[in-house]
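Annotators were shown the component list below and the corresponding predicted structure, then asked to write short factual statements about the assembly.
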Amino acid sequence: MLTRLGVRFVLAAVLALFGAATSGANLLYLIDGMLWSLLAASWWWSGRNLRGIAARAEFPEQVFQDTDFQLALFLRKETGRSAHFLTVRSPSGQAFLPFLKKSREEKTTIPARLPRRGLNEIGDVWLESDFPFGLFSRRRRISGLVGLVFPRVFEIYGRQASPAVRAEEISLPRRGVGEDFYGLREYGSGEDSRLINWKLTAKTGKPIVKEYAEQIGNRVTISVDDAEGPEAERLISEAASLAKYFIDAGADVRLKTPEATVVFGHGLIHLGLIFKTLALLGRGKVVERFARPLPKIKIRAFPEENPLSLFAYLTAAIAFASMFLIEELNPLPLLAYFALFPLSLLCDRNNRYPLPRLAFDLTAAAYLLFFFLYDLPGAGSLRAVSRLILFILAYLLLTPKTGRAPGQLLTASFLVFFLASGQALSLWYFPLFLAFFLAAGAWLIDRRDPRPRPRKPNWGKTLMSVMGTAVVLAAVAFISLPRPYSVRMQQILASTGLTRFHLSMRNFSGLTERVELGYLGPIHKNTTRVMRVTIEDVTGDTRPEAVHVRGTAFDLFDGHRWRKSEVNFNYRLAGREVQTRRSLAWLRREQGVIYSPGHDPEKPSRGERFVIYPLLNTNLVFFVGAPAAIESSFRSAYFDFTDTAYFPGAYLEGTQYRVLSQNRDPDFSRAIEDYDRILNEYYLQLPVPADDRIRRLALEFAGRAETPRARAEAVAGRLQDEYSYSLATAHGRQDIGGFLFESKAGNCEYFASAMCLLLRTLEIPTRLVVGFLGSEWNEYGNFFDIRQSDSHAWVEVYLPDSGWTTFDPTPPDFSAKGPASLISRVWTALAQQFEALQFRWYRHVVGFDTYTQRNVLYNLVRKVSDALIPLILGLAALVLALFVVLKAGSRGKLPSWKPARKKPDDFYETVLNRLGRVGFVRKPSHTAAEYAGNLASAHPELSPLEGLAARHYELRYAGRALEEAEQRDIVRMSNEIVSTARRIKKEKT
Amino acid sequence: MNNIDALIANIRKVFVGDPEVVRLVVTALLARGHLLIEDVPGIGKTLLGVALARSIESSFRRIQFTNDLLPSDLLGMSIFNPRESTFTFKPGPIFSHIVLADEINRTTPKTQSALLEAMNDLQVTVDGGTYPLPVPFMIIATQNPIEYHGTFPLPEAQLDRFLLRVKIGYPSADNEKEIIRGRDLYQLAARLEPVLTPAEVNSLQDRVDSIRVDDALLGYIVALASETRRTKGIKLGVSPRGSLLLRRAAQAHALTFGRDHVLPDDIKRIAAPVLTHRIVIESQSFGLLRIHESDTIVQGVLDRVPIPL
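Structure shown to annotators:
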């Protein structure tokens, strides 16, 4: 049964699912997975907590009809782990047991009351637990609580006659002249001197009187004639009351009923016997079950009196710390906020608050006004709501706590964490994520532990197990939750304003058409998937390591920024001369295909399919080879002299197209008139003033290479070898001189720019190309996944024999060059590890989507089918072989499986086990010597066992050690004994 | 430990009954405990006491308990000495090493408790003076379980003071023949040669505590005790004092065999004599039948509790 907290949990999970589905933010999927997993783990553990608890009831000695009594329950956890937080509930009350250690009996008492005389079963005692997190409250009825209830007893005044009673005579025992000795006392003056016992008087020197008890006839018989009729209950109750009255008066009472007779007796034990007999009369012998419905109790997750535990503050603080991961937020005001936590703790511990309650409420009202009237319309829903949630958290922390505060604080903390999950990307999220759920879980468990602090919580291990289970489940849920990501979803998202959850692209790696050195500063990796590229006829085996997906190219570099020059030119298209308009060359679609001027129907061509995701806000046509023709839904396209192609409009909602690419040989560009002039005019431009150092460096790099190709390869090689790749802040703000001569480290734009400059000083035409370097192969779909983080810059060099040729001077990975100290090496290694971890985090967690999901599943299925099927077959064969061997060995009799035995402590136990298997089983209550003695007297051949038992005793209880020779002796003896025993058994059968 | 064997052998020269009984008597002696013999008259209770006392070179008294026996008859009293004008303490029959309290249930509770106090404290206080009892000191009390009329049965709390309750039982046919052969066994017993001195007995008693008891065996004792508290038919189980005395008795029993360690067998053998009179059973019966019932229940407990190997 879901508790109120459980309902809240489900709501939060649904909210997280909605947020995740609409925003596609994978961290929301992560917390959603975690919430569902916690629900599942909690359900499972709560069942496990209650399972295997044996209950035994102990009724008080005397239970009377319709009278409250305390039922003692002995609970014992027999299987599984120790149980926590058990509530024993009945309609009359409840008892709480915080901890039940495994296989230890704990006693608890609950009030109970039974309405009927005789044997009754209490059927409305329940064992209930909401362990671990209070999300589910599960219960189990405790059965078998049968107890005997005595009839109702009322007070009797005077000697009332009742048809049930026949009293003969009543008197109290008193002194007199009887036979039974009563006591001794001193002689009092005036008494009859005959009473003096002279013997005693002589002994003691004082006159002593010996007294005897009077023989008395105080005997009462109570009879119940009718134990079945309508009057029976009244009669029995009266009989019980009378019995009590007479016993109290000291009489000997006899009970006569149609079923049984209790002989004369006195004293309370006798009374108990009478009550018992009366209780079992007639219908009292039949066990009847009583069960009243349990009154509905709203189970509060947090008991009213429970103060906030330290975990509450910890949970809120972790949630709050997650806000720092949102890169768009200014961390400074947030830092000031952190002072709240110690302050709140201090206030709560001392129960003194900075402001009266009224002032807090007025502030809250004022904030709400501000929120609705100013913040929400002005700052947009996301920012306003974030601020509101932070305000609520602060408000809850600083105000006096009521009974509802813990729940509210938990909700507010969750919302803060949720907010951060929607917007954060950093790898640091993950430890915070675990810490948040751990702290919240610990809080939820801790809340029910009423024992006085300080104490060591004994649920720590359980919490770890539950969390472990939940994390595993969450990982599975994260991987398998469907990602319904579509254009339609985007539209829903836009209408709710939740698109704001998406990150702004500034400062994140990604394709940009503005290449300016030092403009971006530090670059964060963004693994949003932007497109996928299928190269036809390429499969997993024939795929290239990586593809350069060309976006746009630039010709003009002013020392800081790359631009395109305005170039108008003429070109031939389908035999016609066409002129560019505003430096753009337009192409028209004919029969569904847009042909480029370089298209040569005679040459072989290769198809490339592109699926562009909506996030890429551009109108560039991406391609890998040289685009000879484009098949798309657009009616036209245009290109410029840098061989960059465009569609006429930006495809905001994504698009698909197919490019037919051909080899980019010199002929491809010949369609443009006067191409050599353009080449030399634009692709050899150098920034002014020319830097002499660059010329010298270029000559040095080129070395003895003569041909343009050799020179380009030499320059690229030197850059790759001697410079290092870096996304660090310091390396993002330098200029090209700083990169080449000082830091020798930078991002790909620096490498590409440097290579362009160096080659241009050697009179080789070059241009800088921006696009994506795709290397992530999707096995399932046979395509390359391209993400924003794959964006790259490289160089195209015009070689007279092969036309524009791609060179990539960027080293494949960043690595420290040159000699370094141990610390810096370790640091670099750590940084690399972190970088790699972060990369995995982005790629596999933040950037997880439907395609990756399918890819993962596809790979999994393939691996499983590749590896598991032979394994299963092999195992099956093995089992079969074993079966056959065993069957042959045991002549058609298979050994039966026996539960694993405890490892024997010493040789005697081993012998006993072996003898037990032969058929001579020791009774658990027989000692070693008794067993040996019994066996020896039954089978004298087995008498050596007695010697063995004696040895065992010496070893076990006298603390003697065995010598080696003795040990061998014992082994020999044991074997003999066992074989003798086998022989005896065989002879018998 | 030949001297314990010698002691047992010496007693058996005149006591022709069950040798196990002799061992139990010696066990009680070594454990500084007292013995309650609950059996029919005429089976050699006095003989056993006399033989034991003679064998350890100790004084022996037999006190027949009657309903007019007073505490002072037992403990002694201060008597005025007119010549010196002082009270002189005249010790009663209890000032002996071995005291046979015959038919203890015949006397009044007052006298019973005077005896039991002496048993517990090993000293006697009369008229403000405290007089230590001789060492070793041991009471062998007998109760006649058949005659019930006009008796004051020892209450359960008082029974607890006795370390062992022993049944002697009728002798076997051969033994009985031996008894009636014609020798005067009492005369023989009175002339027995001592084999131990009281000092030696005392040092043996000191050794009992150093007998090794394995942890598993302590666990077994506790298991037995808690089983008596759980068992159906037992109204009141064994008290922790009962389990403590069971350990001590087992140690003494091990010592009678000359061992310096307790075996499971010791505990199992001694458990019934130690435990049967310490439980209160729910049955309404009395007398021999009641004793028999509690024996059966304790035997059931012993059969149920697994014993360490």
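Statements collected:
1. Chain B has two domains: 1-206, 211-309.
2. Chain B is about 45% helix and 15% strand.
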